[in-house]
Amino acid sequence: MQKKIKPIPLTEFKVRYNLLQAPHESNPDIKDTLRQAAVLIALIQEEGELHVLLTRRPTHLKSHPGQISFPGGKVERGDASLIETALREAAEEIALYPSNVEVIGQYPAMKTFTGFEITPVIGLVKQAFTPKLAPGEVDELFTVPLSYLLQTENRQKQTYQRNGIHHPVYFIRYREHLIWGATAAMINKLCQHLIL
Which of 40, 125, 131, 192 is 20 to 30 Å from 72 at the Cα level? Predict the structure, then answer.
């Protein structure tokens, strides 16, 4: 039985994040031209504990229907940076505005088989906010305690073969939600980073 991980206080989170080097995991070997995108891994304090903000996409969407994801999306012409893309999308999707986010870093872009190269941006929500979900883009907003995600047994990895190459796919179950694919891989990278 593994030892339960205690919640990480905000100040300790910042120290760990800044002092440790993020683990590197190879991307799938994808030769196609990929669309640039960015997501916001937003952490918010609830009852003295850090939680990760996640959204559930509507089931009618053509791309990733019903999946759990971070606020984010494609880079638009007017975006000055990938950080700006992630913050703009969070504002549009859940009314989490850039002025309420302290950006502390980003991870290298992750390639996906669905045609995207996604850059995860890590940010801390400064103050509690009232979410307003964008109709047609977000069906639900929920949080998961970071301490839950840090428990190794809550993050599962399976290997799948595609075009003769083996690739890891991550899965996280939390209550009624199944978090998987790129979102779960980004969470896994954050957790590996923090517990090194």
Answer: 192
